[in-house]
Amino acid sequence: MPVARLSARTCDHVRHWHLYQRLVADVARLGIELDVAVTVGGKQADLQDLTRAVELGASEKNVDTLLAAQPAASNSQNARDLLLDVLEAEGPQESDQLDARIAQTAGLAAGTVKNLRLKLKDEGLVKMLPDKDEQGTIRRWRVHRTQAVRG
User: Fold this and answer.
1) Residues of CATH 1.10.10.10 domain(s) within the chain?
2) CATH number corresponding to 75-145
3) pLDDT at 15
4) Which residue has the higher pLDDT, 37 or 30?
């Protein structure tokens, strides 16, 4: 399989940058090295100049194996699974403590874990219920696992 270096310039425009980042991730998975030149000084690259491939030589890698390979699970996916595992094994947890615990274990920020937890709530996999004192004031929120099956 030939190996190529992909040389690209990106626009200052955010949409083009995100498309380029997706291209970088897809190409890197196939073992192709990328050369990046980002425009500076407010000048935008012409989209016609976006891509240039330069052959680097032959590779011993099998194309079918590369294309069939599953990408490794992300830290966010691992945190999502761990959060559900903890709730299933240990029952309801105080939300801030759960976020901090999962963040430390998964190597993510607590805010990222909170966002993952809210997505799980939107998917119906967890629910948050308040702990209230005698006057009905909310003291803390507890995260509960629902009976919904993981997708």
Assistant:
1) 75-145
2) 1.10.10.10
3) 44
4) 30
